[in-house]
Amino acid sequence: MKITIYNCRSDEAEYLEEFRKKHGVELFPVKESPTAQTVSLAEGCRCISMITTPMDEKLLNIYHDAGIRFISTRSIGYDHIDIKAAEKLGMHIGNVSYSPNSVADYTVMMMLMAIRRVKGILRRSDNQDYSLRGVQGLEMHNLTVGVIGTGRIGRTVLRNLTGFGCRLLAYDLYPNDSVREMAEYVSLPELLRQSDLITLHMPATKENFHMICLDTIAQMKDGVVLVNTARGSLIHTGDFLDAVESGKIGAAALDVVEEETGLYYNDLKDRILHNRGLAVLRSYPNVLVTPHMAFYTNQAVKDMVENSIRSCISFAQGSENPWQVI
């Protein structure tokens, strides 16, 4: 079995020989993204692996005509793929799972950096300003933390937070019994009303689009701290900017932003940033922005590569595939 590994980075390539031997497959890694011009790189394959290249109906048609029947994205999110178009073509799509500790650990780090005003402290230190004015922080044990989304990552965040002694609230459409041992499930309006710090851990779905907006922000405490290591589309950027400038949102830490595709993971120094929202966010002293790095650990990268390969094998063999979306 041959699998073309599109968008293959050097940090992923180092694991391919190990997995080629382990799973008995032929792996063909390429740096290129899947496009109309690079479809020939998948010749002889029924399955391909890729990362976050947008796959619209036109491109899916091209790969379908080339004989591709399964696309595995090496990410949890798959909103960059037109699922409805894939269904019409009879193509199948899969995502991957990876160590939830990667994002969960990063989330707690971002929480601490936000409540301790680390961005402001570092900016001042760079200018040799070591004064205390304006950088007094908060202590986690004094806060009520609301976790929206209690899947694998949300649950791991809650487990990490139990050691801080803070009050924990949770919201999810599908409550989990293990979460009840760590947190209190409440309605979304109640979580927004009571939480001093809110962290987001939901997928990018039509239902979740812009769930953090003017209406939901209005339900939050004044000075609330917001953390997002999930998906940028969960937050309405314009409403969020207004809330930061008014002081309704007292601090934030964002690893994802709206319309980040084509920006993150590229070297754009000395170039105009074609995302005004991101440009403005970076200017705020109380908003920490990182370029979608929460997942990026050695364990997570290894998991993503191997599980994508395993997903392709499962599809080809017609066996149970825990990562198959459609």
Description:
- The chain folds into two domains: 118 residues, NAD(P)-binding Rossmann-like Domain (Rossmann fold), CATH 3.40.50; 190 residues, Rossmann fold (3-Layer(aba) Sandwich), CATH 3.40.50.720.
- With 326 residues, it is of the alpha/beta class.
- 36% of the residues lie in helices and 15% in strands.
- Strands 8-7-6-9-10-11-12 form a seven-stranded parallel β-sheet, sandwiched between helices.
- It has 13 helices and twelve strands.
Give keywords.
seven-stranded parallel β-sheet, Rossmann fold, globular, 2 domains, five-stranded parallel β-sheet, 13 helices
Write the layout of secondary structure elements.
Layout: E1 2-5, H1 10-13, H2 16-23, E2 26-29, E3 47-50, H3 57-65, E4 70-73, H4 83-89, E5 92-94, H5 100-115, H6 118-126, E6 144-148, H7 152-161, E7 167-171, H8 177-180, E8 184-185, H9 188-194, E9 197-200, H10 214-218, E10 224-228, H11 237-246, E11 249-254, H12 276-283, E12 287-289, H13 298-317
Helix pairs in contact: 5-7
In total, the number of domains comes to 2
Could you describe the largest sheet, including whether it forms a barrel?
A: 7 strands, parallel
Radius of gyration in whole Å, from Cα?
A: 21 Å
- Spatially, the strands of the biggest sheet line up as 8-7-6-9-10-11-12
Write the H/E string, N to C.
EHHEEHEHEHHEHEHEHEHEHEHEH
Estimated share of beta-strand residues? 15-25%
Task: Tell me the structural class.
Answer: alpha/beta
How many angstroms separate the termini?
21 Å
Helix percent band:
25-40%
CATH architecture of the largest domain: 3-Layer(aba) Sandwich
Q: What low-confidence regions span 5 or more consecutive residues with pLDDT below 50?
A: none
CATH superfamily of the largest domain: NAD(P)-binding Rossmann-like Domain
In CATH, the topology of the largest domain is named Rossmann fold
Please count the beta strands (DSSP E, at least 2 residues each).
Answer: 12
